[in-house]
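Hi there,

I know you've been waiting on this one. I reran it after we fixed the sequence typo, so this is the corrected version. Both the input and the resulting structure follow.
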Amino acid sequence: MAGDLRIGTSGWNYPSGAGTWDGIFYPPRRGRSKGFDELAYYAEHFDTVEVNSTFYGQPRPAVTRSWAERTPDGFEFSLKLYQKFTHPRMFTERVTRALAAADADRAAIDAIARPNDADLDEFRRGLEPLAARGKLGVLLAQFPPSFKNVAPARDYLAGLLRAFEPYPVAVELRHSSWSDRVAETIAILNEHRSAWVQIDEPKFRFSIRQNFLPNVKGFYYMRLHGRNAEAWWRHDRSEDRYNYLYSGDELKEFAETAAAARELVGKVYLYTNNHFSAKSVANAAMIKQQLGEPVEGAYPPAFIERYPDLRSALTPARTSS
């Protein structure tokens, strides 16, 4: 029996910037009904979402409880781990800026930036309302390209996975040192029943090599970041990195991979992260179309006009508001 297939986007709330979703996927802010709920609207179109906000701040129970209440039964949230767990340098820089006025010394900053049991407990408390309602998908541990396969990193990864048992954890590794010693990497992940995230993104000199095969039977996790190589490393705004629309031909390999993985694992999660101007929404819908999955929900005329290749698969909304 084929496994459960879930296709969605990375994030659902992009209210500002040149790549906003307002007026494209969501109604324009001006004239929008007062009770309009972006998350509830999103959940009419997809049955899962990958949450980015938990990378920038610990999840709060009141917030995650609200998410659970505003989405239908069966909807799942995959949560990105807090940056303190996966991007210590980024977190340290943030703490340093915050404490600069207090003239804190380096030892104090390092102590604050180091993950501890209280941080782990706080994250677990934050996700519990989703777990209790059966709406927790996967925890995503996304590491930066600077996270290399050396002994301290291997020990840290194993400890982090151990700390978040029994939740399913997907691990995104980007440096080739992990694929250079593939058996060692898979052994760490398999010991904790964690999936090796399969990614598509612009390549760099030490990009990880992938074979797109599942490493565990429980679940499979894929993320499509886009291929905007020109703006990936140098850009005026961070959102520019994700200004890329996959063509139908480019998506076929990922649709076929998801279909094949579905025959081997219990669940397949596929998220599109090229969020600029709701291109991730368009590409997620295109993958569903290619796989013969229902493309649910009504889409506003502005969205269909911007992404005409989807016209035959989409149900037009009666009005754009």
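Quick highlight: Residues 90-99, 108-112 have pLDDT under 50 and may be disordered.

Best,
R. S.
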